[in-house]
Amino acid sequence: MDFIKEWITNIIIFILLATVLDMLLPNSSFQKYTKIVTGLILIAIILSPVMKLFTSDFESAIASMGQFHSLEDENIKNSIEFQKKEIQASQHAYILETMAVQLKTAAEEELMEQQGMEIANIELEVNDQDQRPFPENLEYVIVHVKKAEDEGETVAVVREVEIDTNAPLPSKQTSQNTDQISSLLSEKWNVPEKSIQIMIEGGSDEHGQ
Question: Whole-model pTM?
Answer without folding.
Answer: 0.52
